[in-house]
UniProtKB/TrEMBL annotation:
Keyword tags: Membrane, Transmembrane, Transmembrane helix
Cellular localisation: Membrane
Pfam family, any one: DoxX_2
Membrane topology term: Multi-pass membrane protein
Annotated organism of origin: Actinacidiphila glaucinigra
Main location: membrane
Name of the protein: DoxX-like family protein
Domain of life, source organism: Bacteria
Lineage: Bacteria, Bacillati, Actinomycetota, Actinomycetes, Kitasatosporales
Amino acid sequence: MMRPLTPGTVAQGVTVNVAFWIVAVLLAVFYLYAGGKKVAQSRERLQPMMGWVDRVPMPLVRFIGTAEVLGAAGMILPPLTGIAPWLAIAAAIGLALIQVGGIVVHVSRGETRQTGLNIVLLATAVAVAWLGTTWL
């Protein structure tokens, strides 16, 4: 049963809408940058920032970068256009899974201290997915 629209429920919906857009756009900007670097730069250019690239094939690095760029676009474009907005939730979940993989790679390399950014990105992607389920 739907709750009746009251000023409180409308304000809550606006707040969730604004929160979704702020968090999703910030996360998308990060992934466009990070994914774009993985797609466009050589292993030598990536190595100082991403030590793990020396242990994986470059096609995998390119695939991860492509997935990050597509995930960023998928969080923003569907709700912006109104075409299949549920794809934003799927994109956020996909980006969260990429971070789970990143955490696994860091831990397997003995780089537990370097998982902080991955944990923040994982939590942010989960937040976008949750906000999307309450708003989209």
